[in-house]
Please model this.
Amino acid sequence: MMSSGSSVFRVGISFAIVCIFYVPTIDSLPELSPQKYFSTLQPGKASLAYFCQADSPRTSVFLEELNEAVRPLQDYGISVAKVNCVKEETSRYCGKEKDLMKAYLFKGNILLREFPTDTLFDVNAIVAHVLFSEDVENARLYFFHCKLVLDLTQQCRSTLMEQPLTTLNIHLFIKIMKAPLLTEVADDPQQVSTVHLQLGLPLVFIVSQQATYEADRRTAEWVAWRLLGKAGVLLLLRDSLEVNIPQHANVVFKRAEKGVPMEFLVLHDVDLIISHVENNIHVEEIQEDEDDDVEGPDIDTQDDEVAETVYRDRKRKLPLELTVELTEETFNATVMASDNIVLFYVDWQAVSMAFLQSYIDVAIKLKGTSTMLLTRINCADWPDVCTKQNVTEFPFVKMYKKGKNPVSYTGMLGTEDLLKFIQLNRISYPVNITSIQEAEEYLSGELYKDLISYSSMSVLGLFSPNMTTAKEDFSEAGNYLKGYVITGIYSEEDVSLLSNKYAATLPALLLARHTEGKIESIPLASTHAQDVVQIITDALLETFPEITVENLPSYFRLQKPLLILFSDGSINPQYKNAILTLVKQKYLDSFTPCWLNLKNTPVGRGILQAYFDPLPPLPLLVLVNLHSGGQVFAFPSDQAIIEENLVLWLKKLEVGLENPITILPAQEWKPPLPAYDFLSMMDAATSQHDTEKVPKCMKETDVQENDKEQYEDKSAVRKEPIETLRIKHWNRSNWFKEAEKSFKCDKEL
Model:
């Protein structure tokens, strides 16, 4: 039960004092024998028990948290006990060792549920699992409206929550209960919005006039109480209303869905108003239940696109048997026995479940062709394993190879990128090239022709034999880039033959672009590993790329205005040649020139509709300054896309003679409904207290241990609690940033 208001606060104190006198409280965890414990169980009363043979370091942390959970669970009428297993007494809960890694929830002497102790990792997890156990029946939640009661001898009105007891439903229920019961408005109903509408509930306007105001208000209050939690009720003052509504209408019904016209009704009975609202809600629920294949109307208000994708694919059967599910018992033996890819995920999180589909797609593509074992572990069930592997955000992928440090995957969370990462990691980098002939085969793509489809460019570092430091830095850079590009190194005595052939001054990089059939040389003014990574990263970007959802982050991070050519299909070679000519002439150095095929990337049509109204014919050349100002400029559609016209247009832009067609608002991408902005709520909550600092530098070390011990990734000294686990962003493309952090750490270490 919950209440509000200061008057009830005094009643709450009195009640607490009575409880202190008559209900003894236990602050510490009681220890009982099995016989004694089962004799204390009472019919209808819930009890949580942990059966233990002997205290050990492995259980000490859990017992500390269980002790902390005694008082909060007592507040809900649930007792907690530690049951010491003794030889003199037999109990099926004191049997095998695996049974001792569970806690048991009883109602009377009936077992309701078992909890693996790994899932009860702290006091909050213990309380949450017990209170929200699916097997606990007859739970009810009431809201008591005591703020409206001035006389303490009167009873408070109460409202029962009719929806299932989930975190989201409780959150929405409380927000609705705290909203005003009745609001008076004198505005156009079409323009009125309340918290009810934001939460997906309809609005009911009781139309009033001055002569019948008091009676109409009483009617509106009565309707508001009857529809509390189902709809918002407002008193609409017709006399002061600027927008006319039909004279005969006394009720206006406004749905939460956008684009649905309002209903102007004539209903002279309160029950008719209630029935109209409830019948409409009932029809929507029946339609949703009868036709599960039709997406419900609430799909458009999912918290994010990832959650929506998971919802749409909820009936898809995944062939999980293509991957091996790991547990605490099997993790160590599996990752040490063979080369493994491990997916760390949590089954309650939308991004994890969406990426699990991509992970299974990779397993399908690699079936029967790879020696790499694809495995997965649910960190919601085995948090200790994930903690030891230094995994603090989900989903996360690591590659384990015999005798080598684990390699973290930090690319895009999609099938193709993960597949590329796995395939390119079949060999070690950088590849040591030992002859001129082998170097030529490497540059032509013949040496690793089965990998060329995953890497459009191969990089060969040229060094004199005595350039020890430069070679070490390049090797370090190649190691960081493994899984993303093929790198090799040549430092034999005859290296000058290659450097002379390709006009390269040592030390240098040779970039073999296989799709273009070109080899270019880049001198290394600085051989520091971080600089080498930056050079190779920039070289991987195309001069005039086709922009897609997957590669946009790579070009977006350049922080330059985007010069985009929108096309409904392949672009005219004449346009491409004109833009490439301007690139060579350095006219476009301050821009990122690219093109977007609306057939391959349909989302581009929505982008154009935001820029133009109406949409002009394609192709369209647009300059978008996203990083400063948000201005959008359009190349004149009546001019041909040729070099002369493009140069003239760019010069006009430079001197300010062109006006933007629109200016993009500097607003954040937020959830569609304010009540769903859980990230802001979490940020506000976490900012109220200090969190322990995590060491800035993290360096993975070789941590293979003997078979009896847990394989542990000690890439960082772990000081953060389990609550600091974070969720990965869906469009994650920060592998270069991760590498950059590691370089800084190496220097400090």
